[in-house]
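#struct-pred

JT: dropping the chains for the assembly here, can someone run the whole complex?
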Amino acid sequence: MRHVALTVNGERHELDLEPRALLVYVLRERLGLVGTTVGCDTSACGACTVLVNGEAVKSCTMLGVQADEMEITTIEGLASNGDLHPVQQAFHDHHALQCGFCTPGMVLASVSLIESGEATSENAIRIGLEGNLCRCTGYHNIVKAVQAVAGVS
Amino acid sequence: MIPAGFDYEVADSPAHALELLGSSADAKLLAGGHSLLPAMKLRVARPSLLVDIGRLAESSYVRDAGVQVAIGALTRHKDVRDAPLLREHCPIVSFTAGEIGDPQVRHRGTIGGSIAHGDPASDLPSVMLALDAELVVRGSEGERIVPAREFFTGVFQTAVGAGEMLVEIRVPKLGASTGWSYVKMTRRAQDWATVAVAAIVERSNGSIERAAIALTNMGGTTLRATAAEEAIASGTPIDEAAALIPEGTEPPSDYAASAEFRLHLAEVLGKRALAEALER
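RK: done, full complex below.
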């Protein structure tokens, strides 16, 4: 067991973790934050994407102990005071979710892409989201939602 | 998928990392973890100790080193892609770093981890080989410099010995007469290369005088297309020389492509890489 401190959605948690515990399972099973989903578990699908120190990371390919003293944002931490994050609102407005399974990862990958300044065109958004798969194949509206927030046509 | 159990230590300096690495026969270094952790989840890798070097901030840098650019082994793919020094002096490295995986992978994966992993399907080893880069390996006796041609020794095998670590990558600054290209074919957007070709060319009077051509996923390690390089050096037209690119290779057959298709791809992608390098 290793003692770590994770700041998740602004709240500090001190935990004793088995080194092999993957971050996604720490979030889901230790902290009860089940908004982060596990899709492929092989770092291909991006469903488990969270923000680590502000950047999109696949939480199935990171150990919980590697996140010691880092800041993590999950889908539960995006809205503030009951108001959806602009990316969440845009997904709602553009019908950018169907079954919803990929949505938390897709939203967080989009937030990271927009904040990094790389969502500069429709094509850049499509390439920037290549690490996230939507099995409903609902990409078109996802891209439109991200374009709306990034202000690119 | 959960890795088998292991002990975990955090290194606070490269020397400390080497000391921890030497403390267990099957210890492994953990940098970004984007090659090692998937292997551990599949239980293909079962180290008893992981030495986390991911927090060694001093090993993440891109520095001017005279005729070379020096890159710290723990520099993440994203930071390699964005480094102004590389964009100016050795753009094939920054370009290729931006072609690895997807943004999430590039936020964690490191140049040193990718190179030291020695995967014949990964992108950076071919770029290192085409550039004749130098890899700085540190052990308890000090540092040694390994040329890229001697570094990749087999499937997931490199010249980094037990108790050693890759600490720095040195790439040459490319002059105005040097062109470059890295052309990759993948089955899915963020997939490993089915085949890819790295080309560094010396241009003269609008044609290619010399070329260094390295191949990704055409055998057990990244390979130089020696026959094609020699043909180009002796004045053979590019299209004819490109037909020699697959010569001497024994590519794998797997879910992504048959060996036969890979032989075809190496020629076609090689031709495209040479044409692009001539223009850039």
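JT: nice. Residues 179-279 of chain B form a domain with the Enolase-like; domain 1 fold (CATH 3.30.390.50). The two ends of chain B are 44 Å apart (CA to CA).
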